[in-house]
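call fold(seq) -> tokens
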Amino acid sequence: MSSAPSAAETDTQAAAVANTTGITTDSLSKTLTEKLEAKHVAIEDISGGCGQAFQALIVSPQFSNKNSLARHRLVNSALKTEIAAIHAWTPKCFTPEEWEKKQVQA
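ret:
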């Protein structure tokens, strides 16, 4: 019976995965800004540093007149290669007008 890996072993494995995928919050942000003409992008690595789970806030005029599903499909299409290499991806998509209203309410 094998024992569970130590925290150091799992941290090392997580760092190796992050290094091999090359996916970072900056690379995701850059791709979204370029492909979706995003006006605001905030990406957070929620994986504990291994680069396998991200949540994103994306503001793009390309989301206008699209429902939530269509917006997510647009984002997923823009990040097709990256999404295939990570474990979890959670985008929140807003038009510039929606984002501005949300900022005023906050």
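Residues 7-21 form the longest helix (15 residues).
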